[in-house]
């Protein structure tokens, strides 16, 4: 395959001593203050008094994850318990908690700290993690790492690499894990004792940050380093979908035997990797506070959170919801909308008969189209596939709750159905794209993306029905849900 000034204390005091009355007399303040109080932005004195003493979150200690006896060295930092944490509705990421809660940072005292991050690794105030952590006087940052697309930059496409550099602000080395190497070298690992991993994932196996997480865990286990995952929301939520990656199909877009849409956070995924690989590593997860993955309207993405592109073509929540299906377009000749403002939410080609395609999809498996609204559209990519050509296509709408039903939407099946319908309409259509994909030169991209040739073979088999693919995928999905139940933290 991705940032409001407040009034000074003096000005606030002036307002309290008489400026407020003068402003009200001039008709300037009544609306602001009234509206703020109506919507809960300001508290009255009685409200502040009745709130009671503020409880400071406590670090209860380190405990092994239940059911994880095979990796006793893996720990999680437990959330504070009690009514105060239960009433909390605003989500705090692992990064935010590490910054706000000094007790969480105490084990880092005197240790050299590295950071693996990218542009979406930001605080609630949209400050980058590297800058925010560097301001903590007791934290000794000695190295940083960038995954695919870079620590701060926006490298655009597959196999567009980032170089190592020295951060000009903090004067520490920044190592690229998508350049000359994709696994950290021993020399890179020698620059820290504890690696903080703060990566915003999209909940999809093919998103390469998942593979980078596996690689750093393996290196840390081998070299005796600690890894702390600062957990973040999975914007695709808990639903699971797709075929499990088969043995022998591991790649940079396939880190392990999981379905396309895995339903885990990065912290949960790290614990699963430790168990899967039998790693003896000091893994700790700084859990989020207040994350409710099944709660609307975000269903995984907190409504109060700003969206920062984790990669250049991940511009919004709609893309994240569609991605487990539309990412398969990278392995075919249809455009996935790269070179437009809505990449990976639509697909098309100059010669696509959209009406016939949608009609065939509805005839084949109408239930695979549930939970969203499909709209015929036209677009002209400015770069990438079909650049400069007017494409007829389909846009998948999942942003409007009148159309989007989180539990019913199955993007992987939807996109598979589009391939099947196109193959039935035109058996000779040149659908599969043959090109180097994520450093793999001998296997088709569509097979690497799906973790086996099973999806492609189903599409190309004229006799295969949707029920056959559904049976395969459903069995894989049920097995995965059982496999990872013990690793879920929220």
- Overall tally of domains: 3
Name of the top-level CATH class of the largest domain: Alpha Beta
Q: Which superfamily, in CATH terms, is the homologous superfamily of the largest domain? A: Uncharacterised protein PF07075, DUF1343
**Class from helix and strand fractions:** alpha/beta
The order of strands across the largest sheet is 1-2-9-8-7-3-4-6-5
Kindly provide the radius of gyration, computed on alpha-carbon positions and rounded to a whole number of angstroms: 24 Å
Proportion in β-strands: 5-15%
Q: List how many beta strands DSSP finds.
A: 12
Order of helices and strands: HHHEEHHHEHEEEHEHEHEHEHEEHHHH
What is the averaged pLDDT score?
Answer: 86
Task: Predict the CATH topology of the largest domain.
Answer: Rossmann fold
Report the total helices: 16
Descriptive report:
The chain is α/β, with parallel strands linked by helices and 490 residues long. The chain folds into 3 domains: 19-50, no CATH class; 62-310, Uncharacterised protein PF07075, DUF1343 (Rossmann fold, 3-Layer(aba) Sandwich), CATH 3.40.50.12170; 317-483, Aspartate Aminotransferase, domain 1 (Alpha-Beta Complex), CATH 3.90.1150.140. The protein is 31% helix and 12% strand. The chain contains 16 helices and 12 strands. It has helices spanning 9-25, 30-38, 45-50, 83-87, 94-100, 102-105, 129-134, 186-189, 209-223, 266-277, 317-326, 354-364, 411-425, 445-450, 454-460, 466-484, and strands at 62-63, 75-77, 112-117, 140-146, 165-166, 173-176, 194-198, 226-230, 282-286, 346-349, 373-379, 391-397. The protein has a 9-stranded mixed sheet with strand order 1-2-9-8-7-3-4-6-5, with helices on both faces. Strands 10-12-11 form a 3-stranded antiparallel sheet. Helix 9 links the parallel strand 7 (194-198) and strand 8 (226-230). Helix 9 crosses helix 10, helix 11 crosses helix 13 (411-425) and helix 13 runs parallel beside helix 15. The longest helix has 19 residues, at 466-484. The protein is globular and about 65 Å long. Mean pLDDT is 86; it is low at 1-88.
């Amino acid at each position: 395959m991705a940032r409001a000034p407040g009034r000074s204390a003096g000005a606030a005091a002036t307002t309290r001593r008489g400026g407020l009355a003068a402003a009200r007399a001039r008709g300037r303040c009544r609306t602001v203050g009234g509206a703020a109080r109506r919507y809960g932005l300001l508290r009255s004195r009685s409200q502040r008094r009745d709130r009671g003493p503020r409880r400071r979150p406590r670090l209860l200690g380190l405990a092994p994850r239940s059911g994880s006896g095979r990796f006793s060295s893996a720990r999680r930092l437990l959330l504070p318990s009690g009514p105060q944490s239960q009433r909390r509705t605003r989500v705090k990421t692992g990064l935010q908690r590490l910054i706000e809660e000094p007790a969480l940072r105490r084990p880092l005292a005197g240790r050299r700290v590295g950071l693996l991050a990218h542009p979406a690794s930001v605080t609630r105030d949209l400050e980058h993690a590297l800058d925010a952590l560097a301001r903590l006087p007791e934290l000794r940052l000695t190295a940083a790492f960038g995954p695919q697309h870079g620590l701060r930059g926006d490298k655009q496409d597959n196999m567009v690499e980032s170089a190592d550099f020295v951060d000009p602000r903090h004067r520490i080395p920044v190592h690229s894990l998508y350049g000359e190497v994709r696994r950290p070298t021993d020399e890179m690992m020698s620059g820290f004792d504890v690696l903080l991993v703060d990566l915003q994932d999209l909940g999809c196996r093919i998103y390469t940050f998942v593979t980078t997480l596996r690689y750093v865990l393996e290196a840390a286990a081998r070299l005796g380093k600690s890894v702390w995952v600062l957990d973040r929301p999975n914007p695709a939520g808990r639903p699971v979908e797709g075929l499990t990656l088969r043995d022998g199909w591991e790649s940079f877009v396939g880190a392990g035997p999981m379905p396309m849409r895995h339903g885990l956070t990065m912290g949960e995924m790290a614990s699963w990797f430790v168990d899967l690989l039998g790693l003896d590593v000091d893994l700790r997860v700084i859990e989020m506070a207040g994350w409710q993955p099944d709660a609307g309207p975000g269903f995984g993405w907190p409504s109060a959170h700003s969206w920062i592109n984790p990669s250049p073509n991940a511009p919004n929540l709609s893309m994240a919801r569609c991605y487990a299906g539309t990412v398969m377009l990278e392995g075919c000749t249809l455009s996935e909308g790269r070179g437009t403002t809505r990449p990976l939410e639509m697909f098309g080609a100059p010669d696509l008969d959209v009406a016939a395609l949608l009609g065939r999809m509805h005839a084949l498996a109408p239930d695979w189209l549930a939970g969203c609204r499909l709209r015929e559209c036209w677009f002209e990519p400015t770069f990438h596939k079909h650049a400069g050509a007017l494409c007829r296509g389909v846009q998948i709408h999942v942003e409007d709750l009148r159309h989007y039903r989180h539990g019913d939407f199955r993007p992987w099946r939807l996109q598979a159905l589009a391939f099947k319908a196109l193959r039935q309409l035109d058996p000779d259509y040149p659908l599969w794209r043959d090109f180097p994909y994520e450093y793999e030169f001998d296997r088709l991209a569509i097979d690497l993306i799906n973790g086996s040739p099973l999806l492609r073979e189903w599409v190309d088999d004229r006799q295969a029905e949707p029920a056959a693919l559904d049976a395969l995928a459903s069995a894989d999905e049920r097995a995965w849900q059982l496999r990872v139940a013990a690793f879920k933290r929220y």
